[in-house]
Structure formats: C-alpha cells, structure tokens
# Entry
Amino acid sequence: MSGHAVPARKLAYRAKLEALLGEYKSALVLCVDNVGSNQMQTVRMALRGRAVMVLGKNTVMRKVMNDFAATNPEINALIPYMVGNIGLCFTNDNVKEIRDIILANKVPAAARVGALAPCDVFIPPGPTGLDPGQTGFFQALQIATKIVRGAIEIINKVHLIRDGEKVNPSHVSLLQKLDIRPFFYGIQVTHVYEGGSLYAASILDLSEADLLG
# Structure
C-alpha cells in the first residue's frame, strides 16, 4: 500500500528552496513578526532584480535544509536559526545594501494591549483637542494638564511607555484618544549567512577600524 502523496504545492516549495540554496552565496535571516502581506509585497518589489525573499513554515524549511545538507554540509550553520516566524532573503549582491533596503520599509502601527513596546513612547506637550470633560482620564495616568481655550493641554513631555515594556489598556486608550500610532513595524534582519559562515546582522554596521581594533 503506497503512502500519502505529497501535495504538488509542497513539492514546488521544496524545489524552489533547494534551487535558491544552490544558486545564491548569501542569505539573510528575517523575522517577520507584525508584518502584513502588503508590506511584504512592497519589500519584494524594492528587492526585485537583486534578491529573492522566501517565507514558509520553519519546520518545512528545516526539513528541506536537512535534506539539502546531506550533500551540502555547509548549510548546517543556518538550520538552527529556522525558528519562529521567519523567512530568508537570498542574494549574490552586497548584503549590507540588501539589509538596508529591507529595514527601510517600515509602516506606522498602533499600540496593542499585551504587546512589548519595540521602542520608548513619548507624548509631547501641547494641545490635545480633547474637551475638559476628559481631564479625569489624564489625572488617572498622572499626566499634568491645563485647560486652554476650552480644550485639554498637556503641560510636560510624558514618557508613556518604555522600550520592552508591556503595553497596557490605559496606554492604548490614551494613544487612541490622541490619534498617535507610536510604533513602526517592518521585517527585521537577525543574521547573515555567507558561504557556510553565519553571523549577527549587527556586524554589518561595524567599520573596518572596529573589526581591526
């Protein structure tokens, strides 16, 4: 009795990934958390002719790579990083330039309850456009305000959320009232694979003096 047939879609994905692993000398490891399909398409278009981006289930990617490593053992360096919501960007171009193109494509995003803030969030002083009836909301958050021309005005710059802090309902409510979308989400480049070697993408920002020193 024969086993289950492998869907044509999976076979095509395997063939594509194996072809890319063989054709390109470099691959950037991507984290695609909070990245929508439209944003992904924008990045693909920006990379056209210079790099090819591939997404997929990390379990499937690891399986293809494990099989590929049987005859190409250098790819083993990449396999442990196929975890989480990831992708790969294959290129034979300058990896720093490709990384910079990817990072440049970011979109503003509203804060969500329970999310970890990717950066500090400050509320600037000045008019809010909100009526005096909402003063109590600011008092509850210990934000000093005054009434100017019939509207609430924030007196001092407010450090609302700290980098890495969990966003709570009060944060979200205030940001919504002020129509502030504080975060920018985009594809993150975590590591770079080149010819069997793998290193953190932050190495791309080091100068020659940094590397020699």
About this structure: Helices lie at 8-23, 37-47, 58-68, 95-104, 135-140, 169-177, 208-212. The longest strand covers residues 188-194. Residues 8-23 form the longest helix (16 residues).
